[in-house]
Design brief:
971 residues, eight-stranded mixed beta sheet, 58 strands
Length: 971
């Protein structure tokens, strides 16, 4: 190109001779702001000066910083550095040579490229705000801006919330979380086809939301428990959760505990002052949210104040105060023994009844957490322990206080006491007093005891004084004075010692006959003679024959007695006598009855009708645990003695019966052990005689529910219980050994006595003598009645003897000998064995009149059950009267070899006619019964052969423990 240009210039020079020419290259300049560019000015011809002029016409100084001019021989270069808008315009290049001058111009245009000046990323907004996404871009000419979201160009018509602002920013009204993401800001200049773009990350922050699990939390204070307060917070970014109480931020420590994200607050050892509103605060970039959780602290009721009080009888009133705390406010109640008092109650005092007074009032007044119990007209019966109970919906608390009432002595006790000459009696003077009182006895103005009355003894306890009088004559009966004295006063009371009498006669109402037995239904005597009835004597006979007699121990509410050994289809007379400690009363009028015939087939070897027995009547009684007692009453024996009873039982929901159990004929009950809890059972009992078996007596029952353990019911540990059981077992062994030593001459003590002392056991001499003692009777001149208990003596009317009820004459010191139990059968236990030797004496038989004073236990109705050191022997009016043994005793009663064995009487049978027993052999008899040398004959010779003392036939049954009736006197 340079050669071409030179050619052109050469031609010009040739054509124009010496004219100057100027040319600027390039002829036009377009520069982007900030860029640099140069221009070349070439001169043709001889030129001395070449200069550049800016758009303002000013000559450009070669030393300018933004524009540089450089000169060579025929050229000059204009360089524009970092062009700006001010650099735009026409630039002129002028060449001079003397007067000759030539110039050329060039237009410099300045433009702005697409430039993003302010495009932050990311840009964050709060949900719901009107967001403006910033994208500041400039160019010349002005660019056109396009927005994209998730790769798609935004269409403003589709979503009215989106709008392009005049400054090219993107506006989103009520921005949502779904608007979050990457946006693209794109700028274009159409004239140049220029474009550029910038990505912008948009984040939408969400204001936290709080959801409390419980707006109210209830807790119990003052019991060491904790309370949990919780709130769950959501938002973006994940909010932080804090708790405040009374504008104080709570932190993990001794009192409070927070979980990792702070959503759960645990308040330890809650007390009442912790109650209030706790604030849960959730905070993030979008802001914060607060919610309150209320803590309600309830406090269990507690008695905080209660003091003992004292008063004097007949004071106007005494006030007891009880204070309690708790939330909700507790209610306070008062109680005394089994009586509860409520607010505002006006109640009469009724303890004890003998001091009942309707003009005495009890008033309860309560206010807030304080309650007072006001007792007006103070009486000695007000003394005792009062209980104050505070209760609210959380729980209750009780405390007791003692009201001490000082009062003069009050004397209690039965005024009338009955006895007879020679029989000691106890007069009880029971004293209530505070402080304690001293007691003095008087008779006819003279203090007891004295030299004139040597038959008087006094025994004292802390709450009573007992005067024991043994009357020697009618002068000892009468009035006795008991005087009690303390610092508050003195009180006296007269007691009467009255001669006792024998009871009146009982009244036979009806007789229910069977073939060989009869049930006598009677009414108790109208008069007991002042002392309890201890037994009944029943006599029966064939018309015109001698009476057969038997004693039956008296029981409470006893109205039926069964007599046995009767002949079927025979007429009898029966009468009754009541016996108390004084003696036997008059006879009831005789009552006539006729026994039923035997419903069966004739016996093979006799002309007497005989058959199977009737089904026994059954009854059920719950025993301890899962044991039950099945008892039965023998009905018609079919004309021959019952041999035994057969028992079988089963649960109703199974088909198999338990193994059949056979019990002796003398038994009237059996105990079923090891039964299932809460299960229905069926029991069948069959009576069997020589002719066969009866129809079964059937009864059904359901066992009890199995007991469950009660928390906190026992304060003893396992070790303590085991220790107690070991001690009890050891004492039981010692008791058995001592019993064997004294009764049977055996056991460890017997060995020691024989080996080391050379002595035999006690009771060896007197055993047989005691067996032959005669029973007391109203007429001492008559021969003693020999009594041998028949098998019927084991019926419910004769089933042992209940302990004599304590009365004013029951001794305090000597325990009552244990009453032997009636024969029984315990299923699933050890086999039956003889518990006592055949020659053992009856432990309740009295051998002398003086022995009656030492064989009874302490009265159960005495004020104190514990014996005191100064308490001596007291006596019992219900014991055997002091009647000397009859001198008309047969040799058999003193000779053990000839006398019937009394201890075997439970298995013996007394027949009204002995020839019936002789004709019916007993399969259970293993030893011949003694006949005492008497001959048994038939009815035609009864006048010559009948034994006047009515000795009964004795049948010995092996493997049956003898059983003695403890309250009967034996002959």
């Amino acid at each position: 190109m340079l050669q071409t240009r030179d050619i052109i210039w050469g031609l010009l020079l040739i054509g124009c001779a010496a004219a100057i020419q100027v040319e600027i290259t390039p002829t036009q300049g377009v520069i982007s702001i900030g860029d640099s560019k140069f221009f070349l000015c070439e001169v043709v011809g001889d030129a001395k000066d070449i200069d550049w002029y800016d758009p303002r016409g000013e000559k450009i100084d070669p030393n300018r910083q933004d524009i540089l001019v450089t000169r060579s021989e025929l050229t000059s270069v204009l360089t524009i550095y970092h062009a700006s808008l001010d650099s735009a315009g026409f630039y002129k290049c002028v060449a001079k040579n003397g007067d000759e001058e030539a110039e050329a111009t060039v237009l410099v245009e300045i433009f702005q490229k697409i430039t993003f000046q302010d495009v932050p990323s990311p840009q964050e907004f709060n949900e719901g705000d009107d967001a403006e996404i910033i994208c500041n871009v400039v160019s010349s000419p002005q660019p056109v801006v396009y927005w994209q979201h998730k790769g798609s160009v935004i269409n403003y018509k589709e979503d009215v919330r989106l709008r392009l602002l005049s400054n090219n920013h993107l506006q989103i009204r009520s921005i949502k979380k779904t608007d979050e993401g990457m946006y693209m800001c794109e700028a274009r200049v159409m004239t140049r086809g220029e474009l550029d773009l910038r990505p912008i990350k948009v984040i939408v922050n969400v204001l936290p939301t709080i959801r409390t699990r419980q707006s109210e939390v209830n807790a119990t204070g003052d019991v060491g428990s904790s309370a949990l307060l919780a709130c769950d917070a959501d938002g973006f970014p994940e909010p932080t959760v804090t708790w405040t109480y009374n504008n104080i931020v709570l932190e993990t420590g001794d009192k409070y505990s927070l979980n990792e994200d702070g959503s759960e607050l645990v308040i330890k050892d809650v007390i009442k002052v912790d109650e209030g509103d706790y604030t849960c605060i959730a905070k993030n970039k979008a802001g914060e949210k607060r919610e309150e959780v209320s803590l309600n602290v309830f406090v269990q009721a507690k008695v905080t104040y209660l003091n003992n009080q004292s008063a004097t009888e007949f004071d106007d009133e005494v006030t007891m105060t009880c204070e309690a705390s708790g939330d909700p406010t507790p209610t306070i109640s008062w109680s005394f023994e089994n009586r509860e008092f409520t607010e505002g109650e006006q109640a009469s005092w009724t303890r004890p009844e003998v001091y009942e007074s309707h003009d005495r009032n009890i008033v309860v007044r309560s206010h807030a957490r304080v309650s007072s119990l006001v007792l007006k007209n103070v009486q000695f019966t007000y003394a005792g322990q009062y209980l104050c109970t505070a209760s609210n919906s959380i729980g209750q608390d009780s405390k007791s206080m003692y009201l001490e009432v000082r009062f003069a002595p009050k004397i209690l006790g039965e005024v009338a006491v009955y006895t007879w000459e020679g029989n000691p009696a106890n007069i009880s003077c029971e004293v209530e007093a505070y402080p304690g009182a001293s007691v003095v006895w008087f008779s006819d103005g003279a203090q007891l005891p004295n030299s004139n009355m040597t038959n008087v003894k006094i025994y004292n306890t802390p709450t009573a004084s007992y005067l024991e009088v043994t009357p020697d004559s009618q002068n000892d009966f009468g009035s006795y004075n008991c005087t009690a004295t303390n610092v508050m006063g003195t009180e006296s009371k007269e007691f009467l010692l009255i001669p006792a009498d024998v009871p009146s006669s009982p009244k036979i109402q009806t007789v229910e006959p069977f073939s060989s037995t009869a049930v006598v239904v009677f009414m108790e005597p109208e008069s007991f003679g002042g002392v309890p009835i201890i037994k009944y004597r029943v006599e029966w006979r064939l018309p015109g024959r001698d009476w057969v007699s038997r004693h039956y121990s008296a029981e409470e509410y006893m109205t039926r007695i069964t007599i046995a050994g009767l002949k079927p289809e025979t007429t009898y007379e029966v009468r009754m006598f009541a016996v108390n400690g004084k003696g036997e009363g008059d006879s009831s009028p005789p009552s006539t009855f006729k026994t039923e015939p035997v419903h069966g087939k004739p016996f093979r070897y006799t002309n007497v009708a005989s058959g199977e027995p009737a089904a026994p009547k059954l009854a059920i009684k719950n025993e301890k645990g899962n044991s039950l007692k099945v008892s039965w009453i023998k009905q018609d024996d079919g004309g021959s003695p019952i041999k035994h009873y057969l028992i079988k039982y089963k649960a109703k929901h199974v088909s198999d019966w338990k193994p059949e159990v056979r019990v002796p004929h003398s038994s009237d009950y059996a105990v079923l052990n090891g039964l299932d809890w809460d299960t229905e059972y069926e029991v069948r009992v069959v009576a069997e005689n020589q002719q066969g078996k009866s129809k079964p007596g059937v009864i059904s029952f359901r066992t009890l529910m199995e007991p469950t353990a009660v928390p906190g019911g026992s304060g003893l540990g396992t070790g303590a219980i085991v220790g107690i059981l070991i001690v009890v077992f050891f004492m039981l062994l010692v008791g058995i050994d001592v019993t064997c030593y004294f009764l049977n001459k055996c056991g460890l003590l017997m060995c020691i006595a024989i080996n080391f002392c050379g002595k035999a056991g006690p009771g060896a001499k007197n055993k047989d003598i005691e067996e032959g003692k005669a029973a007391f009777s109203k007429d001492e001149s008559k021969e003693p009645i020999v009594e041998v208990r028949a098998e019927e003596a084991q019926t419910q009317n004769q089933e042992g003897v209940a302990p004599t009820e304590p009365n004013e004459t029951t001794p305090l010191t000597e325990p009552e000998p244990a009453v032997a139990d009636p024969p029984s059968v315990v299923v699933n236990t050890l086999p039956e064995t003889n518990s006592l030797p055949a020659s053992q004496p009856n432990p309740k038989t009295t051998s002398s009149p003086t022995k009656a004073t030492t064989e009874k236990s302490s009265p159960q109705n005495s004020p104190k059950a514990n014996p005191q050191p100064d308490v001596g022997n007291l006596v019992d009016l219900s014991d055997t009267p002091k009647v000397a043994p009859s001198s008309n005793i047969t040799p058999s009663q003193h000779d053990p070899a000839k006398a019937p064995n009394i201890t075997q009487s439970k298995d013996s049978q007394v027949d009204g006619l002995k020839e019936d027993a002789a004709q019916t052999p007993s399969t259970e008899t293993t030893t011949p019964a003694p006949t005492d040398g008497k001959t048994v004959k038939d009815d035609n010779t009864k006048g010559e052969s009948e034994v006047k003392d009515e000795t009964a036939e004795v049948k010995t049954v092996p493997n049956e423990a003898p059983q003695a009736n403890g309250n009967e006197s034996k002959a």
